[in-house]
Amino acid sequence: MAVMINAVRTILLALILATVPLAANADNLADFTGALERAELQYRIALRTLETSGRDETAAEVRLLRETWQNLIALLDNRRPAQFEGDDSYSAAMMEIDVSLVGAMIVIDIGSREAARAALAPIGETLAKLRERAATR
């Protein structure tokens, strides 16, 4: 009887330990999805500000977007969701958005609304692709 109880305990412990990485990966994905949603929201705010307000207000919103994006990168620097493990395009997308934001801030400072719109457009596309990939994997 004692052998049976020990066997059951061992099996239960093994099952619990086996699910811990799954929970951690789910948390990583949830963290990623939440941070991505915040970045997408700030992106929409920056676009709306670009269309309705002046250069200073737009620059402030794009700076907030970059800050939000850098927070996402810092949060997930060592906690990449399992869906993106081994995927070099993940790192490329992270860097692409950050570089695009710097370019957009420069264009906004120059004062061209058209150029700012063109600089921000690829960021929205990349955010949408990241969201789609996180949802389908």
Task: Write up what this structure looks like.
- There is one protein chain.
- The protein has 137 residues and is an all-alpha fold.
- It has a single domain, classed as Four Helix Bundle (Hemerythrin (Met), subunit A).
- The chain has four helices and no strands.
- Helix 2 packs antiparallel against helix 3 and helix 3 runs antiparallel to helix 4.
- The radius of gyration is 21 Å and the shape is elongated.
- The N and C termini lie far apart (44 Å).
Task: Please outline what is shown here.
With 137 residues, the chain is mostly helical. It has one domain: IL-4 antagonist (De novo design) like domain (Four Helix Bundle (Hemerythrin (Met), subunit A)), CATH 1.20.120.660. Helix content is 88%, strand content 0%.
Question: Which secondary structure elements does this structure contain, and how are they paired or packed?
Answer:
Layout: H1 2-52, H2 55-76, H3 88-110, H4 113-136
Helix pairs in contact: 1-2, 1-4, 2-3, 3-4
Distance between the termini: 44 Å
Strand content: under 5%
The profile of the biggest β sheet is:
none
- Give the name of the CATH superfamily: IL-4 antagonist (De novo design) like domain
Helix content: over 70%
Sum up the overall morphology in one term.
Answer: elongated
Using the 3D structure, state the CATH architecture: Up-down Bundle
Work out the radius of gyration.
Answer: 21 Å
Task: From the structure above, extract its key features.
elongated; Four Helix Bundle (Hemerythrin (Met), subunit A); mainly alpha; 137 residues; single chain
